[in-house]
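User: Okay, second chain of the day. Same drill as before: sequence in, structure tokens out.
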Amino acid sequence: MDVGFERAGIEVVWANEIDKDACATYKENHPGILHKGDIKLSMDELGKLSDIDIVFGGPPCQGFSVAGKMDPGDERSTLLWTFLDVVEVVKPRGFVCENVKALGRLKKWRHVRQDFIDRAEQMGYGCSFVILNSCDFGVPQKRERVFFIGVKGKKISQDILLSRIETKKRPPKSVRETIRHLGVAGAESNKNTCNAKITMAAKPVLRKSPYAGMMFNGLGRPLELDGYSATLPASMGGNKTPIIDEGLLHGDANEDWIVKYHKHLWGGGDPLPFSSAPSRLRRLTLDEAALIQTFPQAYKFCGSKSSIYRQIGNAVPCDLAEVIARVALEEIDGDPKPTIKSNAAVQLNLFELLT
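Assistant: Same drill. Structure tokens below.
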């Protein structure tokens, strides 16, 4: 989120993270402003900040995500309320809180949404939320997230938010356009490869699209090079890492092997043997995953490969973050074209609590 908010003109003056590798990555790219550790232990320090325009962050979502146990009692999920504790202490002009789509859409979490909005209003902030898909804003990836936007002393209209957002939509690049310039996997400019083997499913699960279903073992599905990616999960690094057809991307292949195999199975053909995946298929590299999340190519990541895949998968796409930052600033400044160079912010990553 920091990259996108900085692109929108925000100066981040205080940031928090607790995960060791994420802290190292943050310090490498945003020196001098990180406060490492449990955010709950920094409330006194946060209370000393003044003239802050916006607090933004993405509290952990495991308790609300359909990919998790959906347990609102998960200790990490309580950081949704800690986020509002920070807003109450810092007293910014506004805030942006990001989370998984399920929190904004499922009936099961309706009371959580309403409790969040009610508490924000009790603190003097008008608050509403929008669910956005990153592929509507130039990101080569389908990734839906909910954003709660609050502004001090102002009623927030969801319709106005959506109308502001509508003007910022643009078509995404394709996966091919996004990553091809890096070169083949293993090249100097694309050397951070994933070594997880690709094996064929003995009992494939087919969907209408060749790029859905489960034709391979694991949850890593093939990416359509001339379309956009499915959501990149934080669990990448093994057989949940998406699959790329190197022959179509950089070789002389003139047909899509994935489409051909899907057609074979759809027509009743037998699955291929376990270890017979063609060598032209390989896993998405770290560098490619970062570009699909719209990180700058020069952005530096720290930690093991599995840790970096997790950091990339946990991120809000930078281009999507920029859009929501601009929308929030327009609401805060009350101007469709706000002056944003002087805005200062507190950023809260809040990846996870120490166990």
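The radius of gyration is 21 Å.

User: Thanks, on to the next one.
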